Amino acid sequence: MHIFGIGIDVVEIERIEESIEKFGDKFLDRIFTPAEREYCDAQKSPHVNYAARFAVKEAVAKSFGTGIGKELSWLDMTIVRAASGEPSVELSGAGRNFAEKNHIAQVKISLTHAKLYAAANAVALAVS
């Protein structure tokens, strides 16, 4: 395998919290899948978890070199958490198609959050 691309993103948690307060389900439904919403809403501070997932999605889009748009939409990615705590990304729709077309076999992600910020990185790995 070789590195297809890498991505990183940092987001202000307050910005995501304000978007949730201002736009509610309209914002959440546009950015997050039902599985992500279920996970985040079950946490003590949902907005922190939403911010981290927002950052991961941006990082994945950067690792693809596409950004969010035609090749990859917000809802083409679901950020899941294994029982061990390890996060991963499940691709669907146009995101899966892009990955297959470009021989991307795996996207490794990492996310973190502190008091004010959430951050994430992604490495897209392709087979030759």
UniProtKB/TrEMBL annotation:
Its main location: cytoplasm. Keywords: Cytoplasm, Fatty acid biosynthesis, Fatty acid metabolism, Lipid biosynthesis, Lipid metabolism, Magnesium, Metal-binding, Transferase. It holds the Pfam family ACPS. Residues 5-101 form the 4'-phosphopantetheinyl transferase domain. It comes from the Bacteria. Mg(2+) binds at residues 9, 58. Transfers the 4'-phosphopantetheine moiety from coenzyme A to a Ser of acyl-carrier-protein. Belongs to the P-Pant transferase superfamily. AcpS family. This is Holo-[acyl-carrier-protein] synthase. It comes from Rubritalea spongiae. The gene is acpS.
